[in-house]
């Protein structure tokens, strides 16, 4: 296989949600770049049917074998291809963790892992299908770029850049989305204030903005969380109060904040998924309320934190 795209890339069709956009963008990459392949483990296989009929050698469904899923992707990378490896985040990161760590990380191979359904985007699947700890796990490895898109246009951009730019990337798809995209690199300033800085990650932005509409705070938006854009955080820091609103385990980015602000006295709060073993089903909105990730819950946590500033 060559490394040159067969035809010039074109803008992807806009999708209504992140998972549909993943299929659209990946299908176009397969059609336009003969080195791109996607590896699936039944999840989303039906949606890839049209492009699989055109390029069956580069749309590979290994069945319900998630360890093989990741190892097959690493094998394609060893053969010089650009693999996109996809399943539920709970399967592609947690269930196949040893293969992620060794087959991609230890062998220093390039590839893109795409985990769907976020922390609890399909509550009916139960705890086996939930992955609030995926980003925290990847934080134990080196040299992974982690994207948490909050809009289909962001996912399209991140996936294209990840495939063409090389390196190891994880794209976390799930937990709702924001009404508008923000396509700038790094932390994006949304509004400025004096009492503290809130970093809203991916699909938490619209809920965070609703929660702080009348508060005098800075809001920064992050759709890429690793590497962490510490320079923008420091440049925009008006008060030594930092709040991370993340759609995964609360406190996942605490070490990043501490590292970036190590020479500055500061306080920080992590708002995110609390106890992941609540033994609850319901709908995603119910889990937002349970973990304080709905606008009301976010506001309560912020008010309590700022009371002591």
TrEMBL record:
SUPFAM superfamilies assigned: Thiamin diphosphate-binding fold (THDP-binding), TK C-terminal domain-like
The Transketolase-like pyrimidine-binding domain, residue ranges: 16-181
SMART domains for this protein: Transket_pyr (SM00861)
InterPro entries from the UniProt entry: PDH/Transketolase, THDP-binding, Transketo_C/PFOR_II, Transketolase-like_Pyr-bd, Transketolase_C
Alphabetized UniProt keyword annotations: Transferase
Transmembrane intervals: none
Name by which UniProt lists this protein: Transketolase
Biological source species: Microlunatus parietis
Organism lineage: Bacteria, Bacillati, Actinomycetota, Actinomycetes, Propionibacteriales
């Amino acid at each position: 296989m060559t490394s040159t795209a067969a035809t010039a890339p074109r803008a992807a069709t806009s999708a209504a949600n992140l998972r549909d956009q993943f299929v659209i963008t990946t299908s176009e990459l397969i059609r336009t770049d003969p080195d791109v392949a996607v590896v699936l483990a039944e999840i989303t296989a039906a949606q890839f049917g049209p492009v699989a009929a055109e390029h069956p050698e580069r749309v590979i469904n290994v069945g319900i074998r998630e360890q093989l899923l990741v190892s097959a992707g690493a094998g394609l990378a060893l053969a010089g291809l650009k693999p996109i490896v996809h399943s539920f985040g709970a399967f592609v990161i947690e269930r196949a963790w040893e293969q992620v760590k060794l087959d991609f990380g230890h062998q220093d191979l390039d590839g893109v892992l795409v985990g769907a359904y976020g922390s609890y985007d399909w509550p009916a699947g139960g705890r086996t299908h939930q992955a609030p700890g995926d980003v925290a796990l990847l934080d134990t490895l080196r040299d992974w770029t982690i994207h948490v898109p909050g809009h289909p246009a962001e996912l399209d951009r991140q996936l294209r850049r990840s495939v063409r730019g090389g390196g190891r990337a994880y794209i976390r798809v799930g937990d709702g989305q924001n009404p508008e995209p923000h396509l700038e690199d790094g932390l994006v300033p949304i509004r400025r204030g004096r009492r503290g800085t809130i970093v809203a990650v991916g699909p938490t932005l619209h809920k965070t903005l609703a929660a702080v509409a009348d508060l005098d705070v800075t809001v920064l938006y992050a759709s890429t969380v690793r590497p962490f854009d510490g320079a923008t955080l420091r440049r925009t820091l008006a008060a030594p109060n930092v709040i991370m609103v993340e759609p995964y385990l609360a406190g996942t980015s605490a070490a990043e904040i501490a590292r970036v602000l190590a020479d500055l006295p500061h306080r920080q709060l992590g708002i995110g998924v609390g106890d992941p073993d609540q033994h609850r089903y319901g709908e995603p909105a119910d889990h937002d309320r349970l973990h304080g990730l709905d606008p009301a819950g976010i506001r309560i946590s912020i008010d309590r934190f700022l009371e002591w500033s």
